[in-house]
Specification:
Blueprint (H helix, E strand, L loop, with lengths): L1 E4 L5 H13 L3 E6 L4 E6 L8 H4 L4 E5 L19 E3 L2 E3 L3 E7 L6 H14 L3 E3 L17 H13 L4 E4 L6 H7 L2 E4 L7 H8 L5 E4 L6 H12 L6 E5 L17 H8 L4 E3 L1 H5 L5 H10 L4 E5 L17 H17 L3 E2 L1
Parallel strand pairs: 7-8, 7-14, 7-15, 8-9, 9-10, 10-11, 11-12, 12-13
Antiparallel strand pairs: 1-3, 1-4, 2-3, 5-6
Helix pairs in contact: 3-4, 3-11, 6-7, 10-11
Bound molecules: phosphoenolpyruvate (PEP) and manganese (II) ion.
The site of phosphoenolpyruvate (PEP) has 10 residues, from loops.
Length: 338
């Protein structure tokens, strides 16, 4: 940590800051310039809050040298992490192709969609059993019945499955049926939920909150990692913007921005990011070109009957086409599938 004093800071104020640093068992290294004094602080910073120095008289600014997302940072782990989702690897040169309907509606429909996306090259099946809907009157999902269907269909097509959990009290239940636990955008900062999934050993798909910064996302990942679960995959799924031409604003720069700070894999979700089937293929390609470790796309064989997110679903044929193009792009970029 570095403490920068105000230009007019008095000797008493400087001494007071040094005393405070030393009283915490830390070392203070003073550097007196013509106009400013800077104090470098060395030692274990975990026992206090840097903001405590900010309020001392004469202090202008306190700067952390190490990021607060210690475990998620590249300092902690300079090589890219590879997250295993059963036999599918995510990150480190392996491309995840997550596909399936927004919500699980019945066994037959999920079977039809799973068969199609598997044939197209998807390697992880998605489907929501607990849906985070803006309206309490909208379809809320099948609950445990849906989880059972997801498990059965995933096993039938030999695909690991991912599904969302919204409630810390349901983590154990969801953990029982799924191979990867999704934390949705709306719950990215539900710290109780993050702590709970951090205590499982399951890989976590952590979606970026719609108003969250890249650092907020990494801090949320830190909650999971700090509980002893190292298997976190980040997901860029669009952020709020003033522009109503897309459902959200697809922040493709978040992909390399995360990679510059963290070893965790990051995938893109052009379905929720754009909300528009015509924009999903180009944004999926952009995500992979920007270095994404996977693509998450919602697919439905009959969008007009979908209980959730029908307007943004790709038809199986459309998914087959983009999956082929993504495969070519991934190969060009030296990535493999699975
Ligand atoms: C979803 O994956 O269906 C979903 C609700 O995603 P998000 O949390 O990104 O809105
Ligand atoms: Mn959805």
């Amino acid at each position: 940590m570095i403490i920068i004093l105000k230009s007019g800071a008095t000797d008493e104020q400087v001494d007071h800051v040094v005393e405070k640093v030393e009283s915490l068992g830390l070392n203070a290294h003073l550097s007196r310039g013509t106009h400013r004094t800077i104090i470098g602080v060395i030692g274990d910073e975990s026992q206090f809050q840097p903001e405590q120095f900010q309020v001392l008289p004469g202090v202008s600014e306190v700067i952390r040298v190490l990021p607060a997302y210690k475990l998620a940072s590249l300092d902690a782990h300079p090589e890219p992490s590879v997250v295993p989702v059963r036999k599918v690897k995510v990150g480190g040169g392996h491309l995840a192709m997550i596909a399936g309907p927004c919500a699980i509606e019945n066994a037959e429909r999920l079977d039809t969609i799973a068969k199609a996306v598997k044939a197209a090259g998807a390697n992880i099946l998605r489907g929501g059993a607990f849906k985070p809907r803006t309206s309490p009157y909208a379809y809320q999902g099948m609950g445990e019945e849906g989880l059972k269907i997801l498990r059965e269909v995933g096993d039938k097509y030999d695909m690991p499955v991912v599904t969302e959990v919204m409630d810390p009290r349901r983590v154990e239940l969801v953990d029982k049926y799924t191979d990867m636990i999704q934390i949705g955008a709306r719950n990215m900062q539900n710290f109780t939920l993050l702590t709970e999934v951090g205590q499982t050993k399951k890989p976590v798909l952590l979606k970026r909150g719609m108003s969250a910064t890249v650092v907020d996302l990494l801090m949320s990942a830190e909650y999971i990692l700090s509980q002893g679960n190292p298997h976190v995959v980040l997901c860029e799924r669009g952020i709020k913007s003033f522009d109503t031409s897309t459902r959200n604003l697809f922040d493709v720069a978040a992909v390399p921005a995360c990679k510059a700070l963290s070893h965790l894999p990051i995938i893109v979700d052009p379905s929720h990011a754009t909300g528009r089937p015509d924009l999903i293929p180009p944004c999926a390609m952009a995500g992979v070109a920007a270095g994404a470790d996977g693509v998450h796309i919602e697919v439905h064989n009959c969008p007009e009957e979908a209980m959730s997110d029908g307007p943004q679903a790709l038809l199986p044929d459309q998914y087959t086409k983009i999956a082929g193009q993504l495969r070519q792009l991934a190969e060009l970029m030296g990535k493999s599938f699975g």
